[in-house]
Amino acid sequence: MLFRSGRHGPLLAMSQLDGTQGIDRSKLYVSLRSDADWIYLNVAGEIVLTDNSQPIAEPQGERRAAYLEQVLSHRQLGHLVVEGEAGSGKTVFLQHVALVLAQIHLGEPRPEHRLDIEALQAGRALPPVPILVEATALAEHLTREETGVQDFCRALAQEVGRLAGQEIDSDVFTAGLRAGRYLLLLDSLDEIGDQSRRIALVRCLE
After folding, report:
1. What is the pLDDT of residues 79-89, one digit of tens each?
2. What pTM, to 2 d.p., does this model score?
3. Contact in structure between 113 and 69 (CB atoms under 8 Å)
4. Which of 57, 108, 159, 194 is a good FRET partner for 187, with 20 to 30 A between their CA atoms?
5. Rounded-to-5 percentages of helix, strand, coil across the chain
């Protein structure tokens, strides 16, 4: 898979050592922790999602930062925005999540991970199929006036079709998204150079 060899679409990274031996990046991945104070691990190692209107039960010293994989796969979080400085690991994190889920669907061994697969399955036989796309490419399929859900789904179907090398039926794809069959992993939202396209995409997401 592309992530294993150090590539995903136009993203480039190390793929060989001294020109002869490949490097499996999935074995080098180090889980990232969240610095959000509304979700954390208690002393028992259980993830706790807090209500900002209620006081936190555990003292500060008994709370540990949750892993981003745990946060992303939490049953009560339908959407998640990951923020961080350039080079902090956001893209590699999304690639890692996509790889774990893809390996499950392919019936291949998974790399070590901290995802809650059962929560992601949500009662289905398999977890959602990961769809990792770059916001910069997705925005190319939108205009300033296209800010609705249907516009976003059409643009996403076009970009996925481009990556897959085949046409994707937008209506069928949209139905799959609504049914939870796919997990959308959108990368590089802050790298969209055209402000009008970036605003259009953000409005679609909202």
Report:
1. 898 998 888 89
2. 0.82
3. yes
4. 108
5. 40, 15, 45
